[in-house]
Specification:
Elements: H1 6-41, H2 46-66, H3 71-88
Helix pairs in contact: 1-2, 1-3, 2-3
Amino acid sequence: MPKARKTDRKRFERQEKRRIRNRAVRSIVKTYVTRARQSIVAATPVAETAEAVLHAVRQLDIAARKGVIHKNNAARRKSRLMRRLNALTPA
């Protein structure tokens, strides 16, 4: 088996840093999205629910901007959250 080159080791180190950073961002996104969903289901006041959804949308945008998740993935998840939120409020 050939010996690892210096550039291979450097690439691995960069990948590891990115993986850890991406994992943290994904975890934050999941937390905020979960809070928003729970707020919608728990029938909390609409203002609080809207605020929770807004925070989740903001985190999704940040993750998409950083390239942690794909922009279409963020858009789809935001759309689903907004659909659930709008179902709560009468037209």
